[in-house]
Amino acid sequence: MTKYETIPVQYTHLINQEDYTMILELSQDYLSQFGEISGLEDGVILFIDSNLETNRFSLDNLVRKCSGQDSNKWNETINEHFYNFFNNSESKYDFKDINQIKDILVIRIYPDGYFEAANFQDKIVYRVDFEDTKSTLVYDLPDKFQPAEQSHFEKWGISLESAFKIAQDNVNRMEIDISKQNHKHGFEFFSFFSGDYSASYLLDLAINASFSIGKFGSLVAIPTKGSAFVHPINHNDIALVIGDIHDTVIKFYDEDPGPISVNYYWFFNNKYTKFPITRTEEGFRNYHLPLELDKLFKEK
Q1: Three-class SS string for the chain?
Q2: 153 and 195 belong to one structural domain
Q3: Structural domain contains residue 231
């Protein structure tokens, strides 16, 4: 790869052009052992492997990992990152046998566009719980996550609902660091942190964190796979809450691996509803109450 692209705008708050070029060079050095890099598309490396199949490697998580490290460690980080794509940890599993994979089947939430960018959307098994995202069945392998494919699911002999139940039960057993905080305006909210499962854990909010559900449900933010925030709604204080926690939500979304969304969601009666958004002429987001929540406040 002799030509390097200008740093994509989504990375400019994390690294500079020189750093981005260095990450690309180190990535090329490692990937060239296994095939040929054929191009770059807005932070995605196009790679042709030894079987002449084209792969698309998004640099998003890698850039975020490197941005928090000394550049002297980048070579090791990048080699480890791509190594996970080329080892054979999945070879011991028959993914079409539900009995072999039921203990490693989990749910991860990805933003809309994630699988479309890799031309993989038609192969994955997913449902929509949070608007603008996909709750996706994946295998939690020792060194990576691998999406379950439709061709696998068709052989399991169970319903989609049953498959998601197995996966959610596995997520619910994950270790999540939960803490309660009282914010400056007096309201309380809960933080959920883990390596990979905070957002997925909240898919079962009524079971996993009933203490965070108020009289009018909960306000929920899932900026990344490993961070989530919940405010129990007992009063019409939503504007204050969002105003106080929004900088934190944006910081996690911008800097942590696995970004998902800067949306806010209302959890009520085991359903998530997105807070509608309008934008100002300057590009700022304004969040509005879902109609049903607004109605509940007016009827109280």
Answers
A1: CCCCCCCCHHHCCCCCHHHHHHHHHHHHHHHCCCEEEEEECCCEEEEEECCCCEEEEECHHHHHHHHCCCHHHHHHHHHHHHHHHHCCHHHHCCCCCHHHHCCCEEEEEEECCCCCCCCCHHHECEECCCCCEEEEEEEECCCCEEECEHHHHHHHCCCHHHHHHHHHHHHHCCCCEEEEEECCCCCEEEEEECCCCHHHHHHHHHHHCHHHCECCEEEEEEEECCEEEEEECCCCCHHHHHHHHHHHHHHHHHHCCCECCCCCEEEECCEEEECCEEECCCCCEEECCCHHHHHHHHHC
A2: no
A3: yes
